[in-house]
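Blinded run. Sample ID left blank on purpose so nobody reads anything into the name before looking at the predicted structure. Input follows.
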Amino acid sequence: MTAPGGNSKIGQDAAYQLAGPLGLITGVSGFNKFGRARDVDTTDDPATIWPGSDGAPVVGNSLYTYSASAEAHYIASTDAGDTTQTVTVQGLDADWNVQTIEVSLNGQTRVRIGSTETFIRVFRASSDAALAGTVHVGVGTYTSGSPDSANDVRAVIVQGSDQTEQAAYSIPDGYSGLLTGYHLSLNRISGSTTAQVTVTLRVREFGETAFKVKATLNLRAADVDGSRLYDPHLVIPAKADIELRVDEVSANDVDITGEFDLWLVQDGAL
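Blinded prediction complete.
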Protein backbone atom coordinates (compact mmCIF):
# COMPACT_ATOMS: atom_id res chain seq x y z
CA MET A 1 0.00 0.00 0.00
CA THR A 2 1.26 3.48 -0.84
CA ALA A 3 1.18 6.00 1.95
CA PRO A 4 -0.11 9.53 1.51
CA GLY A 5 2.53 11.54 -0.27
CA GLY A 6 3.62 8.55 -2.37
CA ASN A 7 5.93 6.97 0.23
CA SER A 8 5.27 3.35 1.15
CA LYS A 9 7.60 3.30 4.17
CA ILE A 10 6.11 3.80 7.61
CA GLY A 11 7.92 6.46 9.59
CA GLN A 12 9.38 8.34 6.61
CA ASP A 13 6.29 10.24 5.49
CA ALA A 14 4.69 12.86 7.75
CA ALA A 15 1.24 12.44 6.21
CA TYR A 16 1.44 8.69 6.79
CA GLN A 17 2.32 9.24 10.45
CA LEU A 18 -0.78 11.42 10.81
CA ALA A 19 -3.16 9.17 8.88
CA GLY A 20 -2.13 5.90 10.55
CA PRO A 21 -3.08 6.78 14.15
CA LEU A 22 -6.33 8.36 12.90
CA GLY A 23 -7.38 5.05 11.34
CA LEU A 24 -7.38 6.45 7.81
CA ILE A 25 -5.13 3.71 6.43
CA THR A 26 -6.76 0.29 6.31
CA GLY A 27 -4.92 -2.23 8.44
CA VAL A 28 -2.48 0.27 9.98
CA SER A 29 -2.77 2.00 13.34
CA GLY A 30 -0.47 3.73 15.81
CA PHE A 31 -0.30 2.66 19.45
CA ASN A 32 1.26 4.15 22.59
CA LYS A 33 1.62 2.09 25.77
CA PHE A 34 2.71 3.69 29.01
CA GLY A 35 3.13 2.59 32.60
CA ARG A 36 4.20 3.73 36.02
CA ALA A 37 5.61 1.95 39.07
CA ARG A 38 5.47 4.32 42.03
CA ASP A 39 7.40 2.37 44.66
CA VAL A 40 9.97 -0.19 43.53
CA ASP A 41 12.33 -1.32 46.30
CA THR A 42 15.40 -3.52 46.15
CA THR A 43 13.23 -6.41 47.32
CA ASP A 44 10.75 -5.87 44.46
CA ASP A 45 12.97 -6.24 41.40
CA PRO A 46 12.52 -7.53 38.79
CA ALA A 47 9.35 -5.50 38.33
CA THR A 48 7.24 -4.69 35.31
CA ILE A 49 6.60 -0.96 34.97
CA TRP A 50 3.05 -1.10 36.28
CA PRO A 51 1.44 -0.51 39.73
CA GLY A 52 2.01 -4.08 41.00
CA SER A 53 4.80 -3.02 43.39
CA ASP A 54 3.00 0.08 44.70
CA GLY A 55 1.59 -1.55 47.84
CA ALA A 56 -1.85 -1.14 49.43
CA PRO A 57 -4.48 -0.47 48.27
CA VAL A 58 -3.05 -1.96 45.06
CA VAL A 59 -3.06 -5.76 44.89
CA GLY A 60 -0.63 -7.28 42.39
CA ASN A 61 2.76 -8.83 41.80
CA SER A 62 5.79 -6.69 41.00
CA LEU A 63 6.29 -8.82 37.89
CA TYR A 64 3.13 -8.76 35.80
CA THR A 65 1.17 -12.04 35.61
CA TYR A 66 -0.09 -13.14 32.18
CA SER A 67 -3.02 -15.52 31.72
CA ALA A 68 -2.12 -18.98 30.40
CA SER A 69 -5.57 -19.36 28.83
CA ALA A 70 -8.65 -17.23 28.18
CA GLU A 71 -10.77 -16.67 31.31
CA ALA A 72 -13.77 -14.72 32.51
CA HIS A 73 -12.61 -11.39 33.96
CA TYR A 74 -14.17 -9.25 36.67
CA ILE A 75 -13.89 -5.68 37.91
CA ALA A 76 -14.50 -3.91 41.22
CA SER A 77 -13.42 -0.83 43.16
CA THR A 78 -12.00 -0.55 46.66
CA ASP A 79 -14.55 2.23 47.28
CA ALA A 80 -18.20 1.26 47.76
CA GLY A 81 -19.28 4.61 46.31
CA ASP A 82 -17.93 3.88 42.82
CA THR A 83 -21.27 2.87 41.28
CA THR A 84 -21.91 5.39 38.52
CA GLN A 85 -18.75 5.03 36.41
CA THR A 86 -18.45 3.07 33.19
CA VAL A 87 -15.07 1.46 32.56
CA THR A 88 -13.91 0.52 29.06
CA VAL A 89 -11.74 -2.60 29.12
CA GLN A 90 -9.50 -3.43 26.17
CA GLY A 91 -7.64 -6.65 25.54
CA LEU A 92 -7.53 -9.80 23.44
CA ASP A 93 -10.13 -12.56 23.31
CA ALA A 94 -9.56 -16.31 23.26
CA ASP A 95 -8.51 -16.12 19.61
CA TRP A 96 -6.10 -13.25 20.27
CA ASN A 97 -8.35 -10.75 18.52
CA VAL A 98 -8.87 -7.24 19.89
CA GLN A 99 -11.85 -7.03 22.24
CA THR A 100 -13.33 -3.92 23.88
CA ILE A 101 -16.12 -4.12 26.46
CA GLU A 102 -17.79 -1.43 28.56
CA VAL A 103 -18.83 -2.34 32.11
CA SER A 104 -20.62 -0.42 34.87
CA LEU A 105 -19.03 -0.50 38.31
CA ASN A 106 -20.95 -1.70 41.36
CA GLY A 107 -18.71 -0.47 44.15
CA GLN A 108 -16.82 -3.23 45.95
CA THR A 109 -18.98 -5.94 44.37
CA ARG A 110 -17.20 -7.62 41.48
CA VAL A 111 -18.93 -7.41 38.09
CA ARG A 112 -18.21 -9.72 35.19
CA ILE A 113 -16.79 -7.95 32.15
CA GLY A 114 -19.18 -8.93 29.38
CA SER A 115 -21.69 -11.77 29.58
CA THR A 116 -19.94 -14.76 28.02
CA GLU A 117 -16.75 -13.10 26.75
CA THR A 118 -13.32 -14.17 27.99
CA PHE A 119 -9.90 -12.53 27.76
CA ILE A 120 -6.46 -14.02 27.15
CA ARG A 121 -4.93 -10.55 27.68
CA VAL A 122 -6.08 -7.26 29.22
CA PHE A 123 -3.87 -4.31 28.38
CA ARG A 124 -5.94 -1.19 29.10
CA ALA A 125 -8.91 0.04 31.12
CA SER A 126 -10.22 3.57 31.51
CA SER A 127 -13.10 5.19 33.40
CA ASP A 128 -15.52 7.77 32.00
CA ALA A 129 -15.59 9.62 35.34
CA ALA A 130 -13.34 10.18 38.34
CA LEU A 131 -12.94 7.21 40.68
CA ALA A 132 -12.95 7.40 44.46
CA GLY A 133 -11.17 4.06 44.86
CA THR A 134 -8.60 1.88 43.17
CA VAL A 135 -10.05 -0.46 40.54
CA HIS A 136 -8.79 -3.97 39.85
CA VAL A 137 -9.47 -6.11 36.78
CA GLY A 138 -8.80 -9.76 37.35
CA VAL A 139 -9.91 -13.35 37.63
CA GLY A 140 -11.00 -15.41 40.63
CA THR A 141 -12.64 -14.23 43.83
CA TYR A 142 -12.69 -10.73 45.31
CA THR A 143 -12.89 -9.33 48.84
CA SER A 144 -13.66 -5.65 49.58
CA GLY A 145 -13.25 -4.79 45.91
CA SER A 146 -9.85 -6.45 45.35
CA PRO A 147 -8.84 -9.89 44.05
CA ASP A 148 -7.95 -12.32 46.81
CA SER A 149 -4.71 -13.32 45.10
CA ALA A 150 -2.07 -11.07 43.58
CA ASN A 151 -1.65 -13.72 40.88
CA ASP A 152 -5.21 -13.00 39.69
CA VAL A 153 -4.72 -9.29 38.90
CA ARG A 154 -4.56 -8.31 35.23
CA ALA A 155 -5.02 -4.53 35.33
CA VAL A 156 -5.15 -1.77 37.94
CA ILE A 157 -6.54 1.75 37.81
CA VAL A 158 -4.82 3.62 40.65
CA GLN A 159 -7.05 6.15 42.40
CA GLY A 160 -6.50 9.55 40.82
CA SER A 161 -5.37 8.22 37.43
CA ASP A 162 -8.73 6.97 36.05
CA GLN A 163 -6.84 4.81 33.55
CA THR A 164 -4.45 1.89 33.73
CA GLU A 165 -0.70 2.54 33.63
CA GLN A 166 1.04 -0.66 32.57
CA ALA A 167 3.93 -0.75 30.13
CA ALA A 168 2.94 -4.14 28.77
CA TYR A 169 1.15 -5.08 25.56
CA SER A 170 0.42 -8.11 23.38
CA ILE A 171 0.25 -8.12 19.58
CA PRO A 172 -3.14 -9.28 18.20
CA ASP A 173 -3.33 -12.28 15.89
CA GLY A 174 -3.00 -11.35 12.23
CA TYR A 175 -0.82 -8.33 12.96
CA SER A 176 2.82 -7.41 13.32
CA GLY A 177 4.10 -4.77 15.69
CA LEU A 178 6.71 -2.28 14.48
CA LEU A 179 8.19 -0.77 17.63
CA THR A 180 9.54 2.71 16.94
CA GLY A 181 11.07 3.48 20.33
CA TYR A 182 10.68 3.75 24.08
CA HIS A 183 11.21 6.38 26.78
CA LEU A 184 11.91 6.17 30.51
CA SER A 185 11.65 8.78 33.23
CA LEU A 186 13.05 8.37 36.73
CA ASN A 187 10.73 10.39 38.95
CA ARG A 188 12.20 9.60 42.37
CA ILE A 189 14.90 7.51 43.98
CA SER A 190 16.32 7.56 47.51
CA GLY A 191 20.06 7.58 48.17
CA SER A 192 22.91 9.36 46.47
CA THR A 193 23.17 10.75 42.97
CA THR A 194 24.95 7.54 41.93
CA ALA A 195 21.91 5.34 42.67
CA GLN A 196 21.08 3.32 39.57
CA VAL A 197 18.07 1.70 37.90
CA THR A 198 18.47 -0.89 35.13
CA VAL A 199 15.51 -1.26 32.76
CA THR A 200 15.11 -3.72 29.90
CA LEU A 201 12.74 -3.94 26.97
CA ARG A 202 11.64 -7.57 26.75
CA VAL A 203 9.65 -9.64 24.26
CA ARG A 204 8.20 -13.13 24.67
CA GLU A 205 7.15 -14.70 21.39
CA PHE A 206 4.12 -16.96 21.22
CA GLY A 207 4.86 -20.53 22.33
CA GLU A 208 7.99 -19.54 24.25
CA THR A 209 8.43 -19.10 28.00
CA ALA A 210 11.34 -16.67 28.11
CA PHE A 211 11.08 -12.89 27.90
CA LYS A 212 14.13 -12.07 25.80
CA VAL A 213 16.03 -8.83 26.31
CA LYS A 214 15.83 -6.54 23.27
CA ALA A 215 17.45 -3.48 24.86
CA THR A 216 18.91 -2.31 28.18
CA LEU A 217 19.03 1.21 29.55
CA ASN A 218 20.61 2.36 32.82
CA LEU A 219 19.33 5.44 34.62
CA ARG A 220 21.07 7.21 37.49
CA ALA A 221 19.54 9.64 39.92
CA ALA A 222 21.40 12.46 38.17
CA ASP A 223 20.20 11.34 34.71
CA VAL A 224 16.46 11.16 35.04
CA ASP A 225 15.43 10.43 31.43
CA GLY A 226 16.44 7.96 28.78
CA SER A 227 15.19 7.02 25.32
CA ARG A 228 15.90 4.78 22.36
CA LEU A 229 14.58 5.04 18.83
CA TYR A 230 14.54 2.12 16.37
CA ASP A 231 15.38 2.78 12.73
CA PRO A 232 14.66 0.35 11.20
CA HIS A 233 11.80 -0.45 13.55
CA LEU A 234 11.90 -3.50 15.82
CA VAL A 235 9.53 -6.10 14.34
CA ILE A 236 7.42 -8.01 16.87
CA PRO A 237 5.31 -10.96 15.66
CA ALA A 238 1.65 -11.74 16.35
CA LYS A 239 0.70 -12.96 19.82
CA ALA A 240 3.99 -11.83 21.34
CA ASP A 241 4.09 -10.10 24.73
CA ILE A 242 6.08 -6.88 25.22
CA GLU A 243 6.98 -5.17 28.47
CA LEU A 244 9.33 -2.65 30.04
CA ARG A 245 10.90 -4.20 33.12
CA VAL A 246 12.93 -2.83 36.01
CA ASP A 247 15.61 -5.50 36.37
CA GLU A 248 17.50 -3.96 39.25
CA VAL A 249 17.40 -0.94 41.57
CA SER A 250 20.26 0.01 43.86
CA ALA A 251 18.06 1.98 46.26
CA ASN A 252 14.50 1.97 47.55
CA ASP A 253 11.46 4.11 46.78
CA VAL A 254 11.96 4.21 43.03
CA ASP A 255 9.16 5.94 41.09
CA ILE A 256 9.60 5.31 37.38
CA THR A 257 7.52 5.74 34.25
CA GLY A 258 8.03 4.08 30.90
CA GLU A 259 6.33 4.09 27.52
CA PHE A 260 6.78 2.64 24.06
CA ASP A 261 5.31 3.41 20.64
CA LEU A 262 4.53 1.03 17.84
CA TRP A 263 2.67 0.62 14.59
CA LEU A 264 0.22 -2.24 14.31
CA VAL A 265 0.20 -3.53 10.74
CA GLN A 266 -2.37 -6.11 9.64
CA ASP A 267 -1.11 -8.97 7.51
CA GLY A 268 -1.29 -8.00 3.83
CA ALA A 269 -1.90 -4.30 4.52
CA LEU A 270 1.42 -3.13 3.09
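Unblinding after everyone has recorded impressions. The longest strand covers residues 175-188.
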